[in-house]
Amino acid sequence: MLRELVVGLQEQVFVRKVIELHDKYMTYVNDCFMNHTLFHKALKEAFEVFCNKGVSGSSSAELLATFCDNILKKGGSEKLSDEAIEDTLEKAFKLLAYIIDKDLFAEFYRKKLARRLLFDKSANGGQFTSKMEGVVTDLTLAKENQSHFEEYLGHNTNVNPGIDLTVTVLTTGFWPSYKSLTVSTK
């Protein structure tokens, strides 16, 4: 019980600070660096490094799952409107992209969801839950497809694409939407 309270306090502070930091630097990338892909890549690499470090003996996957669980609890520590809940979860969802062990996040989240549902503590967020499951499924399938593709290339030496190729197929609606960029050639 004490561990849950400590993790609960840590995850609130840690995840909120990471969300604020991500918002701050995403604004810099978009506004100051004109949305340049090099800066998006640098931001992604930086967040991957510290989003995968443990905090006081807890993994980032556990902290993020606990954070989401708290947001979605009826009578949780944060009294947020439905719009604020969706906004906060959308930002947490973006952080999940940086976490390497998404399966661990899914396991923690699934256990917390089951507990919320069993004890009738779930405020809302069914849409968020299905999106999270869809993201994890997309990434798992992409990993399997990549493995099958590499196996195919290994068995068929006469087929050579000439480049390193990695493809990730994503389901529209599960992933956050981003502004479309138009590329002009002059």
What would the keywords be for this entry?
mainly alpha; 186 residues; globular
Protein architecture, described:
The longest helix is centred in the first third of the chain and has 31 residues, at 2-32. The protein is mostly helical and 186 residues long. The mean pLDDT is 82. 65% of the residues lie in helices and 0% in strands. It contains 6 helices and no strands.
For the CA atoms, what is the radius of gyration? Answer: 19 Å
Give me the secondary-structure category. mainly alpha
How many E-type strands? 0
What is the rounded distance between the termini? Answer: 63 Å
Written as H for each helix and E for each strand, in order along the chain, the element string is HHHHHH
Helix content: 55-70%
Unreliable segments of 5+ consecutive residues: none
DSSP strand (E) fraction? under 5%
| Main sheet record | none
**Global shape:** globular
**Averaged pLDDT:** 82
Number of helices: 6
In short:
The chain has 186 residues and is mainly alpha-helical. The protein has helices at 2-32, 37-51, 60-72, 82-96, 102-118, 126-155.
Spell out the blueprint of helices and strands:
Blueprint: H1 2-32, H2 37-51, H3 60-72, H4 82-96, H5 102-118, H6 126-155
